[in-house]
Amino acid sequence: MQVRLLGPVEVAVDDTCHPVPGLRRKAVLAVLGLHPGQIVSSDRLIDVVWGGNGPSTAQNTLQRHMSYLRNVLGAKATIVARPPGYVLNIGAEATDVETAERLIRQARQSTDPAVKVRQLRGALALWRGRPLLDVAGLGWLDEQAERLVQIEHEAASALTEARLMLGEHAQLVPELERLTSARPFDEDIHRQLMIALYRAGRQADALATYQRLRRSLGEELGIDPSQPLRELEAAILRQDASLDPPAPAITVQPAPKVGVVPAQLPLAVPAFTARTREIARLDTVLIRTGHVRSGAASPDAAVVIAAVSGTAGVGKTALAVHWAHRVRGHFPDGQLYVNLRGFDPGGLVVDPAVALRGFLSAFGIEMDRIPAGVDEQAALYRSVLAGKRVLVVLDNARDVEQVRPLLPGAPGCVVVVTSRNQLTALVTAECAYPLTLDLLTSDESRDLLAHRLGTDRVAAEPAATREVIERCARLPLALAIAAANCFTHPELSVASIAGQLREATSTLDALNAADVGTDIAAVFSWSYQALTPDAARLFRLLGLHPGPDVTVAAAASLAGVPAAEVRPSLAELVRAHLLTQPTRDRYTLHDLLWTYAARLSRGEEGEPQRAAAARRLLDHHLHTALSAGQLINPKREPIAVSPPEAAAVSEQPGDRDQAVAWFAAERAVLLAVVRQAVDNGFDSHTWQLAWAVQDFLSRWGHREDHVASQRAAIDAAQRQGHLVAQARSHCGYSTACAKLHRYDEAHSHLRHALDLYEALGDHAGQAFAYYQMGWLSNLQGRHDRALCHARQALRLYRAAGHPVGVARTLNSLGWDHALCGDFERARPRCEQALVALRRLGDRHFEAGASDSLGYIYHHLGNYGRAVEHYRQAVELFRDVGDRYYEADALNHLGDSHRAAGDLDAARAAWRRALDIFDDLGHQDAATIRSKLDALTGISRRATMTIAGPANGASRQPPRLPQTGTRRLAPLA
């Protein structure tokens, strides 16, 4: 059952619409529907429905309307009389407005454009015309209709933005042209139309659209287009690369739905040839183990492991990915993939814990809720996969120890492991099926070349083809590179190509067989010699990048040129198969090619040039990370850093979602860059980078990475003798240790930080250290000690003239009083904090203060005020995208509703909390289910008992659990 307000007012029961006759009845239902689950007083209803001029019989008429509406809704309990008025009580999402707002909210929280499109289309489909169409003319309802129209326009605009992100510019053009005709002064629609036209190759039409808008605004309103629109026109004129369709990006999904199906396989290998015997063997393994029966996977099939081994460049990854794409239909619950980088030249071997966190996140479990220990992670991973049919590809493993924690524990899953080592222990202990990849046969090698170069070209020169095959050692990687070079030079005969390879082999002395292999290095050398000077220089400099992948901006920084100038060189390297391009702006090198590029860099680039390129790369990552970090935590005080090198190319994420996406995509690179900064003696960059990535690593649950980066920061700051950096890094290290429950270590580093800040005379720094000590003490249940630390922090923040610190600490002080049971002292401090934080625009901590006050008023027995503050906290946590604390506040909102006797409101709040906890895969979902189960079948007598004695006798307020969540983790 649902009340529909986004059009004519009506009631839907089992998808059947029931119109409500009469203006006043519709208006009464609309007012209740706009306040679902809330008491609307009779006076308020009369004032809205009769426009402040209700007749003397209005009260009686209102009661008759309620009786009629109950009949339409089908149950008396749907509209409940509750002094001083009535409540619409038909459960969660009682109206189409609530459903639309939920879908819009989910779209706003997602960073995946496809998800945004799906959610926004679902929301906009609920509008059936002008909202509240048949109650027009009633003042307050007219205002609500305008508000809902504005929500529709904003959702439509957001949908257009998401579709532009997906590359639907051509389809959008006619739709936007109709909209600009209907709304000739709407700059946002004109902006979107200009972008769509430009991306559709219609630059002139995009500029003409701007000129039409400029004339309309000037002639009708006497104004010019806004500055952003003028800048867009200029960007279109100069064909700015920023207007190009966005590249496919790594999706950061704050709260994937339970039941999400991961699809992590890399792109299928184009033009895959040969290996028919090996593919048949893998197919046979599936059939023999019961994973494929009559075209479907058997749910009781045992876990099967295929261990694919072979030398570097022999095509293990290509085979595994190609086969995985062929059989993925047999695994409807998902396909997981991770490159374990077991033989990475830069030492970036992936820890099993990192891989487990990635897999668990792919199944919808929020990073911050994943256990810290690898054994606990592995247990959770096995639990998540239990009963599922999932294909897991573990690529490039070093040894069995790296693989074993990533193996599922229940039947139904298949694991494919690739490694240069044979992983004999996996075969003997885990009953894995071994598959060794040898070099291609001569026939297979000839087929590969024929597929790339054309059958006629290969058949015309059989002897030369044989020599090319032998020079490439029948290794697929080398053959692919040779074929790419042949393909890009069709004027050359195969014999001339063979001659060039022969010459390269005889002159090669830069590499030896232990690194790459002399024959393979000759292929690389020959392909490298054919590059243009700019592409050859870029390839050498890529040997300085620590991996695992590189963006356009990072490559431009290495080369010291603008991004637009480096793209042609990157494209040339891709065409030569010296570089692969998994997404539009992200590139990777095979391990052998990285080794070769690093050797070339050492041999052909002077030390000053190498050092300058390394500094530009560090500046790129540092300054982009600082920009992104500021979007994640706007109230964090910036640190002083040197300006970037002139030729370093920084990126500027546009909003918080883009900042999070950038950090998620670059996390492995950033950690590698920190290690590289340590190795190369860039101490300032080391601690500054660690500071810049701290908020992301902390908030998104990358605990071990947080510890490692802050440890490097402490060491670098100590080498520099930089006391402020040392103090900051000790604080950061303490936060990371606390989240791993290493409390003694965390306290020790805070004492170091406090000593340093005292030596510096830095009151704000001392205050922050005390604030963090209070947070740490609360985690350990030492609330009296936390209270002492908060008092010290407040005194020092006031002495430093630090209003944000004062406001945040006032809330902490009040919360600590509350945890000690002193609610009368807690209340004024949290109320002062709330006012100050609201004035400062510190919305995350404002939410925490509202949440604190909800807790305090609940324990004072004032459930009405508790509900009010919890509702504010829920809205604020939702606005800042903190879904865990949103659910936590909803949980306690339900507790306060229940304590007040409003069981229906409690149920609604707990259901919303349960939805979020289920989305996050959080253990608190079980607690909420228990509360909801306890409400089932509660009798009227039980309800009265919960609400309190009818005679007004006093009772002790029910206590809430002391979760300690209202003191948010330090963000400094």
Automatic annotation (TrEMBL):
GO biological process, any: phosphorelay signal transduction system
Region feature Disordered, mapped onto this chain: 946-972
Occurrences of domain OmpR/PhoB-type (ranges): 1-90
Q: Which molecular function terms from Gene Ontology are attached?
A: ADP binding; DNA binding
List the Gene3D superfamilies: P-loop containing nucleotide triphosphate hydrolases (3.40.50.300), Tetratricopeptide repeat domain (1.25.40.10), Winged helix-like DNA-binding domain superfamily/Winged helix DNA-binding domain (1.10.10.10)
Where the record puts its DNA-binding region(s)? 1-90
Mark the TPR repeats by their residue spans.
847-880, 887-920
Which Pfam family, any one of them, does this sequence belong to?
TPR_12
Write the record's keywords in alphabetical order, separated by commas.
DNA-binding, TPR repeat, Transcription, Transcription regulation
Domain of life assignment: Bacteria
Q: Which residues form a coiled coil?
A: none
Would you identify the family this protein belongs to, as annotated? Belongs to the AfsR/DnrI/RedD regulatory family.
For this entry, the protein name equals SARP family transcriptional regulator
